[in-house]
Amino acid sequence: MDKITSIEYSDVSIVEIQNNKSPNQSLEKIHETEVSTGLLDKGLEFIALGCLIISVSLAIFGVIVRYFFGVSFGIIEEICRYSIIYGVFAYIGPLIKKNEHIKMDLMENILKGKALLVNDLIISIILSFSYAFLCWTGIQWVISLYQLGIMTSSGLMLMVIPAFAIPFGMFFGWVYSLQQIFIDINKIRRLKS
To answer: Residue 18 is part of which domain span?
Structure first.
């Protein structure tokens, strides 16, 4: 008896008829690639959520201390600000995987089928080069900040700590964009067969 399996991938629906044999290799590769980062997805989501909780908690604490006791700590405000930045940059990669990153929908409304998949591949390649470049320049910037010993505006924290959020987030954006390139190539191959 034939089994029909339908799997949805962003804008492409793949319907495969199996006669008790192994599924198509490109479909398996897409699935394995998406599953391979599951633990990393959860970890980055946990980091982003933790950073949000830290920021909100410290902001509430800062407001209470400032208005009820008349004391303001600059370091608390900085930790609030920089923890949000870390959270946002940590979640760049999983957003790429979910296809929720910033991109224009104009071409997606015009293009269909293979042209749409090629467009997605081009966007993924551009993202990959952009993230790699931003990660490299971010690392160079962090190194120069460390060598110069620059402090944040409170004077209590090295500027390296918040600045490291950029290469941190861009590295994971690069990893996930490479994964997306691999998935897009396999989707195009799958469409051809």
So the answer is: 3-192
